Amino acid sequence: YPILRNGNSPRNFSEFSDFIVVEKHKNLNCTIPDVSIVVPTFNEEKRLPYMMDATLIYFQNWALKYNRSYEIILVDDGSSDNTFDIASRYLNAHSDHFRIVKLLRNFGKAAAVRVGVDVANGNKILMVDADGATDINDFNKLYEHIDKDSERNEAIAIGSRSHLAGKSIATRSFFRTILMKGFHLLVTIFCTSKIADTQCGFKLFTSKAAKTLFSNLHLYGWAFDIELIYIAEKLNISMFEVQVNWKEIEGSKLIR
């Protein structure tokens, strides 16, 4: 396995620079936000509005309640539908808290998240899927796990659906359930037994942890979460598995 680097100078996204355009990037407030929300998207014109509306409402209220600040970074991973146009409407309406990064071709979810992490300014970075499958109202549970120790420079709070197994609230199809159980068995054998749900697209990182992990990432497809957790274990980065509410959303894509 390549040497893992645990430093303050991770690789940036220059290897993607020929394919990246930062569009309509308006100036945000000069203060460093408490959290950056990175949303990787690929052909999400149908599901994105619901997710973005819920996310914006939640973080507007969260910021007021806890006197916090936030930014949302939507990374369009080479979409061929109207995802970018829809995202632009949100930018026009919420320019103080919203940025768009557009990849000129599809690199994969992990690459999109990595680019978002590289441009993120927040003290903490949330990775959240664009389908809205995970209840955004569970964010603060993840935040509290990391924020309660202000000296914790490298940590991850991992959203987990493991408590939903076998319950009606986890409305997975039969085929997806079979794939999930087989996949989890392989992960337990070959990667880690510490984290029950590696694949939930709802993870909160301290900024240092996110930039260290994604700078060492080699997988850019759907299984990159496993490598993230593997690297975190090798670098002794603290991990917390936090129960979240989740429901299967029609139109989910396994491979991008």
Overview of the structural elements:
The protein contains 7 helices and 8 strands. The relative contact order is 0.18. It has an 8-stranded mixed sheet, with helices on both faces. Residues 1-13 have low confidence and may be disordered. Strand 3, helix 2 and strand 4 (98-103) form a beta-alpha-beta unit. It is of the alpha/beta class.
Task: List low-confidence stretches.
Answer: 1-13
- Strand line-up of the largest beta sheet: 1-4-3-2-5-7-6-8
- Major beta sheet summary: 8 strands, mixed
Q: How far do the termini sit from each other?
A: 25 Å
Number of helices: 7
The topology string of helices and strands comes to EEHEHEHEHEHEHHE
What is the overall silhouette?
Answer: globular
The multimeric state of the shown protein is single chain
What's the Cα radius of gyration?
17 Å
The structure class reads: alpha/beta
Q: Say how many strands there are.
A: 8
Helical content class? 25-40%
Sum up the structure in keywords:
alpha/beta, 256 residues
Q: In summary, what is this structure?
A:
The chain is of the alpha/beta class and 256 residues long. The protein has seven helices and eight strands, in the order ββαβαβαβαβαβααβ.
Topology:
Layout: E1 20-23, E2 35-41, H1 48-66, E3 70-77, H2 83-93, E4 98-103, H3 109-119, E5 124-128, H4 139-147, E6 155-160, H5 174-190, E7 202-206, H6 207-215, H7 224-234, E8 238-243
Parallel strand pairs: 2-3, 2-5, 3-4, 6-8
Antiparallel strand pairs: 1-4, 5-7, 6-7
Helix pairs in contact: 3-6
